[in-house]
Amino acid sequence: MYYILDPKFVIKKWRGTPACYLYRGETKRHFLESETYELLTKCDGNTDIEPCFRTDLLEVSGMIHPCEKGSVTLLPDQIKEYPNYYFRNVDWNLLDLCNYNCLHCFHAADNDMPRDSFSYEEAMRFLDDLVTCGVPGVRLTGGEPTLYPYFREVLQGIKDREIHLKTLITNGSRLDEELVSFIKGLHPDAEIRISFDGIGYHDWLRQHPGAEEQTKKAIRICKDAGLYVMINMNVNRKNRAVIFDSVKMLAGMDVDFIRIIRTTEAPRWMLNAGNDTLTKDEYYDFSVKFAEEYKNTTGLPPVTIWQSLFLDAEHRSFNCFPVKISPCNFREDAPICSAIFDKPSVLANGEINPCTSLAGLFAQRGIHMENVKTDGLQKVLTEGRFISAITKTVGDSGGGMLSADEYKCAFFFGGWYERYCRVMGDWKNLNPLNLDADSSGGQ
């Protein structure tokens, strides 16, 4: 008996993960048992297969169809096995150049640093490499990505290769009606992530007069075009008093999501404004007070407070991010970072590291991994120092990146989980933790 895989299905397998099927044009994976995967690889219209209960199930589901030998063929790459690990998205820093002098960012225009970028040829080759490695999504960042001389060509190249533009991370300074229309035409479901650091403080943190008004204008243009807008917002001692009012203002502009992050001890920030950094307890105290105001205010979008709390007014729910596991579901073989396969960062010079947030620290400490420009993305995602680092598990021991997370310890031993729960009252806790049964405090 001969069978052919239905053209609306794609079968894929990456190193270290179970095989899966996807609906053509979508990125959500549906995992397959190994026996089913082996069977599906033979459904090519030319391989004789003995009918069995699996073929019956697959035929009923519409995944395969009986056929005459050689009468139909598979579509190109309909069944694909990749030698590299699977990554949902890659953060791509197109260039190191920015037009703002942000107090906390090593990409600042006045910072003395090499100004690397991808050439046009390197950019197109990298896009081809994403396809070769089966990476379905990409986030564009920088520096300021809209300053990249081949920015539009990259957007078109992403579209042409059927890669999902997940996010454009920008300061918004160059998002006029014409450019936003161009983006919307190619990538209507892309998330536009714009930085806004508080009413009256945005210009200060960005060190650019008029940045606040320009950012508001960019948000309006993107929303008028029907794009999804997420706001990144720093919080520190200087601006914490205006953060909630800023969130209310942004809600009035119909932004879709807000992410608040403590301005962390990046080298440039510590040099410029180190005394304005919130301590651990100050940050968690801010989160508690923010949550109380959020709960008592209507019409607000979902808000994430980085490494602390998620708030969703529409569904009257919350989630404490430090609560990941308890003894009943602890796994030593789990990755050290649960999001590590979603956000590797490719720098403008081609170097790769586990996370965009680590780029400045790695550069300061002289930590170098592989380079996609010289080594090729598939080799980088298959073996080497980068893969060795990100495949570390919670059962591994050692210092450095595998040391205890001081913020998680401060969260649990400071009793912040209980305070959050008291403040949120009858709202649904999406990830409750029984601390009485977990004497370790969730560590």
Layout of strands and helices, then pairs:
Blueprint lengths: L1 E4 L3 E7 L4 E4 L6 E2 L2 H7 L12 H9 L2 E4 L11 E7 L3 E5 L26 H14 L3 E5 L9 H10 L3 E7 L6 H10 L4 E5 L6 H5 L4 H14 L3 E8 L7 H10 L4 E6 L4 H7 L6 H16 L7 E3 L3 E4 L4 E4 L24 E2 L5 E2 L5 H7 L6 H4 L1 H4 L4 H6 L15 H8 L2 H9 L3 E2 L14
Parallel strand pairs: 2-6, 7-8, 7-16, 8-9, 9-10, 10-11, 11-12, 12-13, 15-18
Antiparallel strand pairs: 1-5, 2-3, 3-4, 13-14, 14-15, 16-17
Helix pairs in contact: 10-16
Word description of this protein:
By secondary structure, the chain is an alpha/beta fold. Among the domains are: 2-82; 87-170 and 325-403, Aldolase class I (TIM Barrel), CATH 3.20.20. Helix content is 32%, strand content 18%. It has helices at residues 34-40, 53-61, 120-133, 151-160, 177-186, 202-206, 211-224, 243-252, 267-273, 280-295, 359-365, 372-375, 377-380, 385-390, 406-413, 416-424; strands spanning 2-5, 9-15, 20-23, 30-31, 64-67, 79-85, 89-93, 137-141, 164-170, 191-195, 228-235, 257-262, 303-305, 309-312, 317-320, 345-346, 352-353, 428-429. Strands 17-16-7-8-9-10-11-12-13-14-15-18 form a twelve-stranded mixed beta sheet. Helix 10 runs parallel beside helix 16 (416-424). The chain is globular and about 70 Å long.
Summarize the structure.
With 443 residues, the chain is α/β, with parallel strands linked by helices. It has helices at residues 34-40, 53-61, 120-133, 151-160, 177-186, 202-206, 211-224, 243-252, 267-273, 280-295, 359-365, 372-375, 377-380, 385-390, 406-413, 416-424, and strands at residues 2-5, 9-15, 20-23, 30-31, 64-67, 79-85, 89-93, 137-141, 164-170, 191-195, 228-235, 257-262, 303-305, 309-312, 317-320, 345-346, 352-353, 428-429. The strands form 3 sheets. A 12-stranded mixed β-sheet has the order 17-16-7-8-9-10-11-12-13-14-15-18. A 4-stranded mixed β-sheet has the order 4-3-2-6. A two-stranded antiparallel ribbon has the order 1-5.
